[in-house]
Design a protein that fits this description.
Strand content: 15-25%
Bound molecules: iron/sulfur cluster
Strand order of the largest sheet: 4-3-2-7-10-11-1-12
Number of helices: 18
Helix content: 25-40%
Oligomer: single chain
Largest sheet: 8 strands, mixed
CATH architecture of the largest domain: 3-Layer(aba) Sandwich
Distance between the termini: 24 Å
CATH class of the largest domain: Alpha Beta
Length: 488
């Protein structure tokens, strides 16, 4: 499926300018002009990184997308598609309705690709055979390293593939990279890492989650590599990105990094962000597998490397998220729970500030054998490891000394029993102030639903409101259809 001429050299340009649009156009000129990448009559697929129906910079800059579409048209492209798979449970039809994507791209002379087939969702009375036929016509089942990936025909069959990646900080890989953008070329269920099995004792110590994720990312990348990769860091979210959280900060660097090899583009981007690429697991694995150019002596760099960007990366410890009225107790956990809890805690810090004022005592326990909570109230157990390893913990039961009544005292006097002879009676009952958020790792939207049920509307009005907004993107009907269409 490789559409690239295998080359042992790469060209990357670092371009600084006054607007993102000027930067992208000038950058492509420096690499030899758009004609070097797009030929007359080409079908082009432009992959953008989309996840949640939020605005820029959670989604890419539309000035850059427009400039690329116009350049492809000028070079004679016969058809231009733009698309991506989205966050779990969100379909492109809804996304497009909310943000007006379909119309916008149509006006630019391109077409929004409904990779998840959600443009068929409204069609009534589709029979099972028709459904199967549409799916067969839309997806290739491609085997890489004994794994199967469903890849849309429109991506594989396009003559040219362009990746436009909006760079923001990322809790696992330090930065959103082009390699990650290419990962959402496959449906979400194909991107998920297998759950830990009970016999996998060393799963967490070896961080098998991250290893499998990295392996999958490189497998999917090897199916269709971009002919042109653009990392847009002109504006980026630093601090608590990649989404708009309370601790996220929009930073202007004024730079774009563009090249003909996405791995090289990512490598240079990480260097610009002052990330040690010699210990970056994804880059190291790409190097080990000989995917892309990771040797800087083989990368022809146009432009000046700015290693003074001073970007604030995501915090490495959950405790550093500093959530008001929340004790965070960590046991042993892997990247799966780290990533999901990082987002959940940041989301809570963003939307629950007032809610937490009224719920002042909370503990959040994560990982295998976490410490005891600070209190017996509102104990959140995040992930299967935390739930299973605390089944017999003291905090699961509330012990109460049974007090003596006046009648008991009278009996003692009659029987001439002294107080010291009295055995203290302890009464035990199950602690119901515990919320389990299951999963390996848990799903954020499900966690929010469970938290709304637990805290209640009156105790957590802001969280309840947010949950109602999420339901607009992920209501039951949409989920049902995504499942039926195997696009969840
Ligand atoms: S429950 Fe969480 S910490 Fe445990 S193996 Fe799964 S993802 Fe890792």
């Amino acid at each position: 499926m490789e559409n690239h001429l295998i080359s042992d050299k790469a060209s990357v340009t670092i371009i600084k300018g006054t607007t993102p649009e000027n930067c992208v156009l000038e950058g492509i000129e420096r690499l030899g002009g758009v004609g070097k990448f797009i030929k007359e009559g080409d079908q082009v697929f432009i992959k953008i990184n989309l996840s949640l129906p939020n605005g820029f910079p959670v989604i890419p800059n539309f000035d850059v997308i427009r400039a690329i579409i116009n350049s492809c048209k000028e070079a004679g492209a016969k058809k231009i598609y733009v698309g991506s798979f989205l966050f779990k449970g969100i379909c492109m039809k809804k996304f497009s309705e909310l943000l007006g994507f379909q119309e916008y791209f149509k006006n630019l002379g391109a077409e929004l690709a409904f990779l998840d087939n959600s443009n068929y969702f409204e069609q009534k009375g589709i029979k099972l055979e028709q459904l199967k036929k549409i799916k067969d016509n839309n997806f290739y089942k491609i085997e890489v390293n004994d794994k199967y990936f469903l890849v849309p025909h429109v991506i594989v069959d396009s003559d040219k593939f362009i990746s436009i990646n909006q760079v923001n900080v990322n809790p696992i890989f330090k930065s959103n990279l082009s390699l990650l953008n290419c990962y959402s070329n496959v449906p979400v269920h194909n991107q998920e890492v297998n759950k830990r099995l009970p016999e996998e004792e060393d799963y967490i110590i070896h961080d098998e989650y991250k290893q499998e994720l990295i392996s999958n990312i490189l497998d999917v990348y090897s199916i269709k590599k971009p002919d042109l990769a653009i990392n847009d860091l002109f504006f980026l979210l630093e601090g608590a990105g990649p989404y708009i959280y309370r601790d996220s900060n929009l930073k202007k660097t004024g730079s774009l990094i563009i090249g003909d090899d996405a791995v090289s583009v990512d490598l240079i981007t990480l260097k610009m962000l002052n990330v040690d690429t010699n210990s970056h697991d994804l880059i190291l694995e790409a190097e080990k597998r000989g995917i892309g150019i990771t040797d800087t002596s083989k990368i022809k760099i146009f432009g000046e490397m700015d290693d003074n960007l001073d970007i604030k990366l995501c915090v490495p410890n959950l405790q550093d998220i500093n959530l008001r009225n929340f004790f965070i107790g960590s046991g042993l956990y892997c990247s799966g729970c780290f990533k999901q809890s990082y987002h959940l805690l940041n989301l809570m810090k963003t939307i629950m500030i007032k809610d937490l004022k009224y719920n002042p005592i909370n503990s959040f326990l994560i990982g295998e054998n976490p410490p005891e909570p600070k209190n017996l109230e509102n104990i959140i157990l995040f992930g299967n490891c935390a739930i299973n390893s605390t089944k017999n913990s003291d905090f699961r039961r509330i012990k109460k000394e049974k007090g003596k009544s006046i009648i008991d005292d009278a009996k003692d006097i009659v029987l001439k029993k002294s107080n010291s002879e009295e055995k203290i009676k302890i009464k035990e009952k199950i602690n119901k102030k515990i919320l389990e958020l299951p999963g390996c790792p848990p799903d954020i939207f499900k966690c929010i639903e469970l938290m709304v049920d637990y805290y209640g509307k009156s105790n957590a009005p802001n969280l309840t409101l947010y949950n109602e907004v999420v339901k607009i993107w992920t209501n039951g009907k949409i989920k049902e259809k995504l499942k039926k269409w195997e696009a969840l």
